[in-house]
UniProtKB/TrEMBL annotation:
This is RINT1 protein. Transmembrane segments: none annotated. Pfam families: RINT1_TIP1 (PF04437). InterPro entries: RINT1_Tip20 (IPR007528). One of its GO terms (cellular component) is Dsl1/NZR complex. One of its GO terms (biological process) is endoplasmic reticulum to Golgi vesicle-mediated transport.
Amino acid sequence: LNKPEWYLTQVLMWIGNHAKFLDDKIQPILDKAGSSVNAGLEFSRALVMLILEKLAVDIPCLLYDDALFCHLVDEVLLFERELYSVHGYLSSFPSCMHILSEESCFQRWLTVEKKFALQKMDSMLSSEAAWISQYKDITDVDEMKVPDCAETFMTLLLVITDRYKNLPTASRKLQFLGLQKELVDDFRIRLTQVMKEETRASLGFRYCAILNAVNYIATVLADWADNV
């Protein structure tokens, strides 16, 4: 259960290793017979169906072990990315994202995603470098004077989007968007709490860093507004 990458990688290897044989030897036979079947894609589809069967058995066994469940999700997302980008798998075919979208699995995914995001926010705001810009010594890069915590937070949101963007239904994507909105509001509250501690020094370093953070986050969210 702690090594889903073993069978996921094995399937990717089988797909890659058989591609030339299927294209050179099997596809011409299908073409000659007037069939519209793509040998390579059908081979991939059959192997993915085996993975779906395997996941359906494994997931209930690790649903409440955060470490194992998160590892499985991470490996499945990496597998999906390679399957589509390297092997040309079709979005209309069955995929692992359908298994991750099933109610019990999906709700668990949302829960652990939120848990680890909040832990990340705790660590980024308690870091000694939280209010310092990574690029403070490079003036042409650092026009907005973005503190490290704000940049890390927006990267966190971007990573979450990247993880859920291939979910098969809009309703599931919207649930993840709801999580992101919760995280933005949580971050806003945390910034407000820090700001209240700094009101006596409103021209101080940290107070200005908070204003820069808010400006940066608002600007990036506005840029993302075009992303459906």
